[in-house]
Amino acid sequence: MSTHDLIVPAAAAAARPWRERLGTMVPILVLAPSIAASFIYVFVFTFWTLYISLSNSSLLPTYGFVGLDNYASLWANRRWNIAYTNLFLFSGFYIVGSMAVGLLLAIAIDQRVRGEAVWRTIFLYPLAVSFIVTGTVWSWLYNPVDGIQAFVRGLGWTDFSFALTANRNTAIYAVIITGIWQSSGFAMALFLAGLRSVDPDLVKAAQIDGASVFRTYRRVILPTIAPIFLAVAVIQIQFAIKTFDLVAALTRGGPGVSTTFPAIYVYDLMFQRGQIGEGAAAAMMMLAAVAVVLVPYSLWIVWRRRAEGRNG
Amino acid sequence: MAEVAPNARFDPEEAAATRRHFWSRFLVYAVLTLFAVVYLVPLLVVIFNSLREQSEIARNGLISVPRSFRFDAWAQAWGSYCVSGTCEGMKRNFFNSLAMTIPATIISTILGAMNGYILSKWRFRGSELIFNLMLLGVFMPGQISLMPWAFLLGKLGLTNSTYGLVLIHVVQGISFTTLFCRNFYVSIPDDLIKAARIDGAGFWRIFRKIILPLSPPILIVTVIWQFTGIWNEYLFGVVFTSGQQQPITAALVALTAGGTTARAYDVMSAAVLIGALPPLLIYLFGGKYFVRGLTQGAIK
Amino acid sequence: MSALMIRNLHKSYGSLEILAGINLEAKTGEFVALVGPSGCGKSTLLAMIAGLETVTSGEIWIGDRLVNSVRPKDRDIAMVFQSYALYPTMTVRQNITFGMESRGVPKAAQAEAVQRVAALLQIEQLLKRKPGQLSGGQRQRVAMGRALVRDPKLFLFDEPLSNLDAKLRVDMRTEIKKLHHRVGKTTVYVTHDQVEAMTLASRIAVMNQGSVQQFDTPKRIYDRPTNMFVAGFMGSPAMNFIPARLTGSTSISVRAADGSDASLALAAPMSAGAPKDVVLGIRPEHIYRFTTDLKSRKPAVASMQAPVELVEPTGAETLAVLRLGDLEITGRFEPDDAPVMGETITLGIDMSRACLFDPTTKALL
Ligand SMILES: Nc1ncnc2c1ncn2[C@@H]1O[C@H](COP(=O)(O)OP(=O)(O)OP(=O)(O)O)[C@@H](O)[C@H]1O
Ligand SMILES: [Mg+2]
User: Fold this and answer.
1) ipTM value of the model?
2) What's the predicted TM-score (pTM) here?
């Protein structure tokens, strides 16, 4: 409910002293710079990039209209196709993986364990460090000469092999594992907060109904925190699509082009190869990927709000 | 020999229950310990290696118990390590990052709090629309704005400068801070604002005396989110700055990009820790409030 | 002179009409209660009086001033909210002085006013606490203190007692009544508890779906409700509505339990224009066990047979559910004289207290 209608009847407004009328404008005046910035950032920038993507820009933006040529040459490129496939592969495993690990940890911590704060801090700290730091450190650990493989072999298991990043077919999994390592703590924190918000009487009722712990979680607790699953998933997809840093620090897109991502590809086209038009087209395709996720999600939110409005 | 109490009865149910309890506890702690090891090993490896001698690392590998101890790597990483010709370590980049992160965090938080206050408590026709517009900014991939920013920063004379990055992060950050603050402020009862208006308080007084004192939980979230997000950001840093102007993330990538042979793991480890330290400290002190506030404000 | 005058007030949100032409008035010192079912627009009306919602059309006068576009702080009003709306980060003292501070009242005068109000409400020992450390009743007092300290022309209360438990609510009700006697301020009091309205108010406005159904003294609202909505809303258990036929200008017939028609004589003759079908409205306390003694005390009593379906003793009185045709009606009896379940008794209905309604317009005939 609004606490204040700024739209006053014209006659009444005219009768008011100007100071008072200025007073009612204060909120809009304060908001104005942010509105302008957001409008430019969201709409002007998007249409600008869209426009560049339809132009023949190379080293500098130019505005000769070439239609969808940039998109055609983008999709004709094998490296771009790998990048887009990688994006979906990564997003799927990364989201499911970090949610699964996060949920497991949240449920474990929820069992009234000792030293809860310590466990929570351990699982959450990776969230504080950058993908750059995480990627750098894990690139060392994956390094077959210095990292985990060398360590295990040093323990005596001499034909142990762990060299994900050295192999074109497995490098993407190194990126996925590192991503999960970084962000499952975040999922854990949100799930834990959700678990804590479940009415304890509900759990007691389920116990009295004879449900096992597993069944209580599956049928009673988890369904009530279903919205959190969705929220976590949407946030993770955000990370997944924008991920540039992680790959840049971990594999730099290699070996070969096996871990190229759209974000990397955009950067390469725009700033390494001077193909701004095609780079803009690739950026637009990233926006399309976000929209594919976001539009259904926001429709769902709107629908849920409507439904709540009807029931309440 | 243990004496059995005369009237202690053997209860098979009780023994089974104890056993069940033991195994379920065991399982919980086993899972937690396993993951804790996975989460802590990388951190410990970096800390140890930043204190070991490079020769020892080369001999024993990255993962091993430290047998030497010294701070030289830290000093080098901070002040004298050479990256592409200049031998100044990371300190300049560290201060660049601070000069970028602190103002951008403060400005975007203040704007977000004001916007959130207006969009939740001083609604007007079209305010929902404006909120949704700002919300869209949360979901924009940075790559979309690269070219426009390059053009704008050029026009404003802010290319290759920390101020340019501050501008970018403020504009980008408004969406997040407004979202957080608005979602938090809507849960403050409207009656409070009404009561204050009857008490004669206006727009600013209500904000200062009623909203702000209630805001610490969400301001902590906003500040932590913005600080870590901006400090850790890499794309804009590497695109719009170079050399001495780069923030620490970009410098880290440049520093660790050296060839695969004879890498100076000790210095790189120290550099990585220097780059990770500010957000880590913020988390250690504010993490508890962050999670609590995030679930109050952001996730609705 | 009236302290508050509302003329033909409308409020809409877009095309949604919330208030449809409200007329209301409160004389200086009067206690007006607004009652009505949830969502009927009581809080909206109060917020408009306070200046917290804009007026779509119509006029609001406080004293001799048209306040339609006067800001809340300049209307000389004070308001107590259902949620109390105490500022959670301020102490009780700061809560009470916040308004005076906003207005730039000198510190010494502030302290004096707080002292006076705290003594009046007996909250002196709470002044240093924060709202979170108070019980529900204490919060309620502080909220009233914050309003009282303003010394306004007009007090507005929006369901101030509905968050309290039953016993505390009765206590606070008494206190509000005493307080009103002592300070004598004009008050508009929203509630959906009709007992509160009956006990506190000098006049009650019964609202439904955005309009005032009846605005009158509690006694007249109770005895002569202008329509079936008011009749049904006020009183608990509610008034019985019995379909009946006019069989002459002074008698009606109703269907009894065995299917036969029972004829009841009216206390006063009906006008000629009245419809044939009517609804007889009779409150539970005007239904008695018929005796000749009753007939001599209340000559307007009409009698009929009814089986007793259910008996509900509440202590001070006993309620009995009686069958009448395919209808159930409630009667209220002295516990000593109460019917027992299964018994068929002869009812004495006091027709001088009965109301007749038009079943199509629902209006009192
Ligand atoms: N900002 C708004 N936009 C649209 N409809 C509104 C708005 N505010 C209130 N309403 C509607 O106006 C009607 C009256 O609301 P109001 O709060 O005045 O009811 P009320 O009589 O105080 O009810 P209650 O006894 O439950 O407090 C309700 O149907 C409500 O849904
Ligand atoms: Mg209300």
Assistant:
1) 0.83
2) 0.80
